[in-house]
Each structure stands twice: as C-alpha cells, then as structure tokens.
Design brief:
By secondary structure, this protein is an alpha/beta fold. It is 43% helix and 15% strand.
C-alpha cells in the first residue's frame, strides 16, 4: 500500500469516527489553524523568501492576513452556517418540517498551487474543516520550501489523521488521484485541471477547479488615468506577475496608449525603484522552466518598458509591451509573469467583442468613471468575477464568491460560499402520520375532483413568512379543509 493510499485510508477512518462533525471540534481545529498561522510567521516567511523571494512584509499582506480573516469569519459564524435552514412552504407542506441540513461530504483532497501557496492551499482547507470534512492536503512541489514547512509544522497543530499533508511531485499526485475522494479542490492551470476531472470521473467525484486565464483590463477614456495605471501596475507586478487574477493585458483607445505606458512606467519606478532587481519588494519567477516560457512569449512583440532579465536569478523586470496584435505569441496563453501587453480598441463595444471572442476569464477589470459603461460591460461579458476601478481586491472580500467560469474554472469558495460548496446541502421534509384525508387526492382511483384539489394544494403558494401572526390561522384553515375533504370522500365511499 502506497504512502498516499495509507494517508487517504487513515483520513477516511478518522472521518467515520464522527469527530470532525462536532461543531466544537471543528472550531477547535480552526482555532489551532489560526494559532499555527500566527505562531509560525517566521518559518512561513522564510519558505516563501526561498521559493519566490517574497519580502518580509509581503508575506502577511498577500498570504496570511487573508487566512486569519477567513478563519475568524468561520469560527464566528459556524454555528449559524451549520444550523438547519428553514425554507418556504406550500399549502401541501404547511404543517410539516421543511429545511436544509448542511452535512459534511466526507474526505476532501486539496491540491494547492505554488504562486500563493498558503492562501490557495489553506484557504480551501478552512472551508473543508468548517464543513466537517476530513481533508488530505497536497501542497505544490514547485514551491518546495513552503511545501516542506507545511509538511513539518501543520501536523503539530491539526489532527494529523483527519488532515494529513502529503508532499511530492507528479507521481505522488497521480497516486492520490487514484484514490476515492468525496470532493477534489484544485488550484492551478487548465491542462492539469482536465487531468483532475478525468481522474475524478472514475469515482464520480465532484471537483472545484480554480484555474485562471487571460484576465482583460479595459481602460476607458473617461477615468483618472494616473490612478488607474497605479492600481493596474500594482495588480500586475505583485508577486512578479504570478497571480491568477492579475490583469493579463490592457485594452485602450490608440490615443491613450503612450500615456498609459508612461504612467505604468512611472509607477514601476515608484514601487520598485530604478533597479527592481535590487528591490526587496520585487520577487522572482518561480523556476527556470517558467523563466524560459516567459522569455519565449516576448518573441515578436515590441518592448516599451523593462525587458531586462537574468536567467541565473530567474529575474525578469516589470515589462510593458506596446502595439501588441491579437495573434501575438504573448496573447496565446495566460502570461503568469511580469509582461503586460497593451492592445488598442476603438471603445467599449470593441473591447466587449474582443473579450467575448476568447475564453471566459477568471477576472475582468474595467476602469471608468462612467457607471453606465461599467454596467454595460458587466451585462455584455462573462467572467469569474468583475472589479471596476481596481485590481485583485475582490479576492479579499469574503462575502463574495471567488471562482471561475468556463475555462477559468468551476466552483467557488471564500466565507460561507466555501462552507456551502464543501457541504452537502441536504433537503429534509418531516411529515406526521396524521391528516391522511388530505392525501386521498393523490391515491388511486384518480378523478377530476381529486385533480382539482391537488391543483389547489400543489400550485397555491403563499409567502407565509410575511404573514407572521396569521400562520397559525392558516394552519387551522388547512386542517379544516382536510377534515371536510376527508368527510366528502368518506360519504362518496359509503354511497
């Protein structure tokens, strides 16, 4: 039996004990996870510095502060999230208990990504724990130092049977995918996403795929261009561009291109100094394979800003490309690096057409002071999320679902959405063995009169929640109707 199979079997055995279902146990595990994030800041930061050259203050800003917020939110609201949820009733169910009961799915596999290895690995784990599941955690082997920290330290804080950490590369991941899970949560690219889905299909396992794509950024003439470009430069070059929701390319009017480039150039200097290579806040490409991939994307494009690089350090300067054509190499795949193409369009309608001719992106960015134009673009396009007049920040809003659509992914998480997505929302109807006369309308022999009663009871929907004190009166009315119906049927049977 492989190491991976043993981990999954132990997790399932632990889940079947039922301990992960108890709310107090879930809350305890979440609090332990929070304690881990706070107490192990040093080890977390050291791992990220080795993997991505993440700065000391960049680690909490981009990784752990969001986790602390998600955990606190789950702890604070878990009893409410996990409680039975009443639903509206019809005349047929007015005297019954009708509700939704969230319940754990079972054993969840969480496969994390390397670009924000804590946020996108532990983030889904928060939802899995809150929902009462067991979870096998598979950090990305690409961010190897962070993976080692996770493997060594997380079991010191969490139930290591319910939440084992399994490290390794492609072979280990393939072995995990052979096992039966109740849900698979993957963050990464579309190519691997297809492999995940194929493996999951063998066990009819539902999947959440947080992928990516080429997230467009439209800049309207009617906006504060200086502010817009400052926010775009921050969103694009944070983490050296290795962000799934980074603005992938800019669409703007030809008359704006030169100023857009100048404003972004100015902000690159403000953020990362004249020499970003020496700046502590500017990271590195994760490895040489991705460095070479990015350098190849530059072929055939005109560099307007940046372009400096050093393969030995996996360094590529913040770069802007001008007059980029739709068929350019850099426009054929998600960039996932510090290259920012600028393409020109005649206006919002041409931008919408350009966006809709391509796969649905994970994020759509719109910069405009015209609220009607913003709403028009939202109405005429589709994307995982939309953010107007800023970049990245929608990821930090726990009250919004985060996820993709089409090629950018499926499923969602953050806050209550993560809890619900990793729960089975079980529909429950509890009736009593009384008022059997009402049921005569459904029993053979079927007649026109019975159909008439059925039509009334089934199709007559009332918003009982808005009636308040009259609910009891309505209940009594239904009882009275039932008695009359029962007597009528009894009289007919006697005849």
């Amino acid at each position: 039996m492989s190491r991976e199979q043993k981990a999954v079997e132990r997790a399932r055995k632990a889940f079947l004990t039922g301990r992960s279902k108890a709310l107090e146990y879930r809350i305890t595990q979440l609090k332990n996870l929070l304690r881990f994030v706070k107490e192990r800041q040093k080890e977390i930061a050291e791992g990220l510095k080795k993997d991505l050259k993440r700065s000391e203050f960049g680690t909490p800003l981009y990784e752990t502060l969001g986790l602390e917020s998600e955990i606190n939110l789950a702890v604070r609201n878990l009893k409410e999230w996990a409680a039975p949820r009443p639903v509206s009733k019809s005349m047929m169910t007015i005297s019954d208990q009708v509700y939704i009961q969230p319940e754990p799915l079972g054993v969840v596999l969480v496969i994390g990504a390397w670009n924000y290895p804590w946020a996108v690995t532990i983030g889904p784990l928060v939802g899995a724990i809150a929902a009462g599941n067991a979870a096998v955690i598979k950090p990305s082997e690409v961010s190897s130092h962070t993976s080692k920290v996770m493997e060594d330290l997380l079991p010191l804080y969490l139930d290591k049977e319910l939440y084992p950490v399994v490290t390794g590369g492609v072979t280990e991941t393939q072995e995990l995918l052979k096992q039966r899970f109740d849900h698979i949560f993957y963050t990464g690219n579309g190519t691997v996403g297809k492999i995940i889905m194929e493996a999951a299909a063998k066990h009819l396992t539902p999947t959440t795929l947080e992928l990516g794509g080429k997230s467009p950024c439209y800049i309207d003439k009617n906006c504060d261009l200086a502010v817009a470009c400052r926010r775009i430069a921050w969103g694009k070059y944070s983490n050296c561009g290795q962000t799934c929701i980074a603005p992938d390319y800019i669409l703007c009017d030809p008359s704006m291109q030169d100023r857009v480039i100048e404003e972004i150039k100015k902000n690159i200097k403000d953020f990362y100094t004249e020499d970003p290579k020496k700046c502590m806040d500017y990271g590195r490409i994760i490895n040489q394979r991705h460095f070479k991939r990015l350098m190849a994307l530059l072929e055939g494009s005109t560099i307007a800003v940046g372009g400096e690089n050093d393969e030995s350090e996996c360094y590529i300067a913040p770069t802007v490309l001008r007059d980029v054509k739709p068929d350019a190499k850099v426009m054929q795949e998600e960039i996932f690096g510090p290259l920012l193409p600028v393409l020109t369009v005649s206006g919002a309608d041409e931008a919408i057409k350009f966006i809709n001719q391509r796969e649905k992106p994970l994020a759509l960015y719109i910069f405009s002071s015209d609220s009607k134009l913003i709403k028009h673009m939202i109405a005429e396009t589709s994307s995982g999320g939309v953010l107007a007049n800023d970049c990245l920040m929608h990821f930090s809003v726990s009250s919004l679902p985060f996820g993709g659509v089409g090629n950018s992914g499926m499923g969602r998480y953050h806050g209550k959405y993560g809890f619900d997505h990793l729960s089975h929302l079980r529909g429950c109807l509890i009736k009593q063995l009384k008022m059997e006369g009402v049921n005569n309308m459904r029993y053979p022999p079927h007649t026109a009169d019975k159909l008439g009663w059925a039509r009334f009871f089934i199709l007559k929907h009332v918003d009982f929640g808005s009636l308040g004190r009259m609910a009891l009166l309505l209940g009594l009315l239904v009882v009275l109707v039932a008695v009359i119906v029962q007597r009528n049927y009894t009289d007919l049977e006697c005849e």
